[in-house]
Amino acid sequence: MTQPDRYAVFGHPIEHSQSPRIHALFAAQTGQDLIYTAEDVPPDRFESCVRAFFDGGGRGLNCTIPLKEMAWLLADNRSARAKRARAVNTLLLRGDGSIFGDNTDGIGLLRDLRDNLGLNLAGTKILILGAGGATRGILAPLLAERPDRLVIANRTVATAETLTVEFGDLGPVEGCGFAALAGRRFDLIINATAASLSGELPPLPADILAPGGSCYDLAYAAEPTPFVRWGQEKQAVVSADGIGMLVEQAAEAFLLWRGVRPQTRPVIETLEAERRTAK
Ligand code: ATR
Questions:
Q1: What is the pLDDT of residue 210?
Q2: How is domain 106-241 classified at the CATH fold level?
Q3: N or C: which end of the chain has fewer CB within 10 A?
């Protein structure tokens, strides 16, 4: 009897990852025989764990915080979108033994914003909070939607300014500190800081969300994040966390690995229902 193909997500910490659940639902839906596990892998053991996983017959990996830049470095070849992001969340072992790196985060966010939540980004003013690896992964696909302006606000202003230089050829992008946001209004505010994970909120002017605007937190948790709650208080039309993006980026990884695209909507609905009953 043949063994099921093996996949995993590496991260640190990893215990709250929903990825094994998502890929199990995808596998059941598409009739694919595979095993997907979550492994706690600290950065100093990342390379040896990747090599051991693939040497031991593993077929593909997801890499999450704080391993995406290391995964980018480790890959032998990279997709165009991974090259742009300088971060990799999906690794695939190719038939010739080489490791291919892709980044499915940006397309995952876009699918959730556009297809699942019904937001049209063309001509809008977008604000991204934070200028780390998560922001890097989503800039190119957001700019491809042709917003009127995309502002990156970060605690460390220089990091935001570096990104504007790197991505300025793709559209009207601007970097600043949080203090420079006073008096400005945005149609979509995306929280890409690590602040949510520690229960904090970046300092935001009270009237920064335009009427009819929306909020999106790249992080997700069992309870609404502080930023999702902030958006609800500001009457955001949509104030969502990143569970939809997580499912969408996973679907794109599944497609790369298995050549089949699973349906995401029923999986998002299942996870939402599980969150409600876990309360
Ligand atoms: P990731 O890969 O998740 O983006 P990262 O590269 O460590 O993680 O980036 C974390 C981002 O969250 C950075 O923009 C960081 O701001 P700095 O560049 O100034 O460090 C931001 N961040 C982390 N904690 C924050 C907090 N308490 N308030 C505001 N921003 C915070």
A1: 98
A2: Rossmann fold (3.40.50)
A3: N
Q: Which residues are catalytic?
A: 68
| Ligand 1 close to Cβ of residue 132 (< 6 A) | yes
pTM of the complete model beyond 0.85: yes
Question: What is the residue-averaged pLDDT of the chain?
Answer: 96
Confidence category of residue 1, pLDDT binned at 50, 70, 90: low
Give the residue whose CA is nearest to atom 14 of ligand 1: 130
Q: What are the distances in angstroms from CA 36 to CA 9, 94, 105, 152, 254?
A: 8, 18, 19, 35, 11
Q: Would you kindly state where each structural domain of the chain is located, as residue ranges?
A: 5-103+244-278, 106-241
Mean of pLDDT values over 86-114: 97
Question: How far away, in angstroms, is 216 Cα from ligand 1 center?
Answer: 16
CB 111 within 8 A of CB 144: no
Distance 14 CA to ligand 1 centre (A): 19
Domain 5-103+244-278: homologous superfamily in CATH: Leucine Dehydrogenase, chain A, domain 1 (3.40.50.10860)
